[in-house]
TrEMBL record:
Its EC number is 2.7.10.1. Residues 301-395 form the Bacterial Ig-like domain. Pfam families: ALK_LTK_GRD, Big_3_5. Residues 1-25 form the signal peptide. GO terms for molecular function: ATP binding; transmembrane receptor protein tyrosine kinase activity. It is a single-pass type I membrane protein. GO terms for biological process: carbohydrate metabolic process. Gene3D superfamilies: Immunoglobulins. This is receptor protein-tyrosine kinase. Keywords: ATP-binding, Cell membrane, Disulfide bond, Glycoprotein, Kinase, Membrane, Nucleotide-binding, Receptor, Signal, Transferase, Transmembrane, Transmembrane helix, Tyrosine-protein kinase. It is found in: Cell membrane. Residues 196-228 are annotated as: Disordered.
Amino acid sequence: MLAVAAGVFGAAALAPVALSVPARAQGTCTVSGPTTTCTFAFTGAEQTFTVPNGVSQVDVTAIGAAGGLSGVNTTPGGRGAQVSGTLTGLSGGQTLYVEVGGVPTLPSSCYPFSPCVGGFNGGGSSHFGGGGGGASDVRTQPRTTPLTTTDSRLIVAAGGGGAGEVFSPSCTGGSQGGDAGQPGANGMCTGGGGGGAGTATQGGPGGVSPGNTNGSPGTLGTGGDGGAGTGGAGGGGYYGGGGGGSLNANVSPFGSAGGGGGGSSLVPAGGTGPAVTGAAAGITISYPTPGKPVTTRLIAIPQQVRLGRPVVLDDLVCPAGAGATTPPTGTVTFTDTTAGVTLGTARLVLNLGNCAAAGRVVFFRTTGPHVITAVYSGDSVYQGNGGSPENITVTVNP
């Protein structure tokens, strides 16, 4: 069978593939009737979405992350925004970069009860106060391209501001972080002022403190830090919210710190929102499933192999409906989901009848079971199977 596979794929397709390139995290895609929906949850890293062939626009719903609590009194942070809209002018094969905002975290640099480090994708930071929530967005350039160089964001759902520190129990009632698009609350007992909300054109101003340090202003994409580490931090967004002013130690009892402002959102033309929500951060991308359906058959030759020996992966793609007269074209991407690496992409070549096949020869570097998936890209006639890829398990023995 190995000789047959070599004859089908040709020498170029049988080039060895190293397993050193990590696969990008992807959303979970499902097909329901005529619609494909891909859901992206927070991972702490950039994710990608490849526009299918035959698709020129997608519908997106984005939700930003909430701001963090402050220490001791657990004053609440602000909520994130939800934005929906249609992204147009896309082309098949185009890569969109998906950033799902994170909630603030609580490493050792924070006060023990306060998640003070800003959430992924733009949340500002504090120390005693809560960090800002990260924004969720879809863009056409990776995050390695600074927003100050090229801002390619197409939709942005802002994060909420973090809460300011309340030092004295008699000065409670203020210091909450601002919801997305809203300023943070002023600290009680002549405390620090709340950070301003980000707008469509600039970051929110930092809250003013009468007795210590003002909060930092928000900037493009990023929330400001809380003043003197006690103010709540600003939420990320199209423009970030300002950090809250620090608590006022020059009065008795100490005046509490101001809350961080929420970031601003970017709504595509004709879209809806921003609306404040307590839902978890995430991004959903949906589009009409293009083309005719296919059936696929993935095999591995052999399915059990010794470490360091070659394995031929063979994916056969055939039209599923009656009356199809042209074979599928496009590519198949093979991924080792166990190791988290992409094995390579191969172009389909004509096989038998209206079917086409793609293959790779791979070498595994670790023993044990490896779950291999094969994803057909689709073309102008046939649907891809990214929502339900075929998989097979290859066992690698010492």
